[in-house]
């Protein structure tokens, strides 16, 4: 992740934080539109004008929120994947520490409703030999370390299964909150409570 922040500082002139960026509809519209464009047109094969048109946000407002770099916008998406998708932020870790893992998964699902192309972005870029791909793979490693910490007695194959189950719970559309809670309870039965 240090490389991500270094790149963002270079592209942005500072290291933005999600608290710096208002998570209003403008933020989500730009971020989701950038992710969608990157998926549909190819990595960085889209323009800020296209982003403005699709997101219905002026370029000047996009520049205000994210800077003038397409890559900076996508790096913000990577940051969001780490903090929210993988639950590596302090709030999510706190939920896990309190045993509220299902609540953490449900928060991620709410994020996916705001940014439905996030899962596709992750899946498309995770194997690419780019800075974004490397950053996503690093986030996976950090998430797996989080799982290992919380389920310390579980053997490696069980942890891999938990990784797959939680990823599926996050990106599978149409699951009810109750079904997510049932699945998380099933994980606890499989490998024990953290």
What order do the helices and strands come in, and which of them pair?
Elements (H helix, E strand, L loop, with lengths): L1 H11 L12 H17 L6 H8 L3 H8 L3 H16 L4 H8 L3 H14 L3 H8 L5 H20 L5 H16 L5 H15 L3
Describe this structure in words.
The protein has a single domain (2-191), classed as Tetracycline Repressor, domain 2 (Orthogonal Bundle), CATH 1.10.357. Helices cover 73% and strands 0% of the residues. It is mostly helical. Helix 9 (131-150) packs across helix 10 (156-171). It has eleven helices and no strands.
Distinctive features:
Tetracycline Repressor, domain 2; 194 residues; elongated; 11 helices; single chain; disordered N terminus
Tally of helical runs: 11
Order of helices and strands: HHHHHHHHHHH
- CATH homology superfamily: Tetracycline Repressor, domain 2
Termini distance? 26 Å
Outline of this structure?
This protein is mainly alpha-helical. The protein has one domain: Tetracycline Repressor, domain 2 (Orthogonal Bundle). The chain has eleven helices and no strands.
């Amino acid at each position: 992740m240090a490389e991500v922040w270094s790149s963002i500082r270079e592209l942005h002139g500072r290291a933005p934080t999600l608290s710096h960026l208002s998570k209003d509809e403008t933020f989500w519209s730009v971020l989701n539109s950038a992710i969608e464009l990157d998926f549909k047109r190819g990595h960085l094969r889209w323009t800020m004008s296209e982003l403005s048109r699709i997101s219905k946000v002026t370029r000047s407002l996009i520049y205000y929120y994210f800077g003038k770099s397409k890559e900076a916008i996508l790096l913000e998406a990577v940051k969001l994947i780490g903090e929210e998708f993988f639950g590596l932020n302090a709030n999510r870790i706190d939920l896990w520490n309190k045993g509220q893992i299902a609540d953490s998964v449900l928060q991620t699902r709410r994020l996916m409703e705001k940014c439905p192309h996030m899962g596709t972005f992750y899946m498309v870029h995770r194997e690419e030999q780019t800075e974004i791909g490397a950053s996503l793979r690093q986030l996976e490693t950090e998430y797996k370390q989080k799982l290992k910490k919380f389920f310390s007695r579980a053997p490696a194959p069980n942890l891999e299964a938990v990784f797959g189950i939680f990823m599926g719970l996050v990106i599978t559309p149409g699951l009810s909150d109750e079904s997510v809670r049932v699945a998380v309870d099933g994980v606890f039965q499989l490998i024990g409570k953290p």
